[in-house]
Amino acid sequence: MANETIFTKIINHEIPADIRYQDDEVTVFADIAPKAKVHLLIVPNKVIPTVNDIRQDEALLIGKLVLTAQKMAKELGIAENGYRLIINCNSDGGQEVPHLHMHLLGGEKLKGLGF
Ligand code: 5GP
Asked: Whose CA, among 7, 63, 84, 98, lies 20 to 30 Å from 47?
């Protein structure tokens, strides 16, 4: 498909990844270049390129990304201490992969973002 991404290949098990959770809407896998002790990517199985492309009828799916992050944080035992959820958008936001994804970072005291 034209809008397939590297993440689509991971979701479809065509290339290897450390997949921690998967259902028919969402896949969670470890980031290949972790920025914290815990660094997971929470990704909708369908390709939505950026936050700019989210449609009204995808609101529940976007909510599910957050609830999946919450579930993973609880399972990993980092919920109480806390964690950070990040979605980068386009070049100024630092987005590298044009397939919407939420970073779940934690497992240690995270540095501030400087604002
Ligand atoms: P972005 O900068 O787009 O918000 O985040 C993309 C993230 O995907 C980066 O943190 C990068 O390390 C991760 N990443 C890129 N390619 C791969 C890959 O092939 N496998 C995995 N597991 N992570 C990847």
From this structure: 84
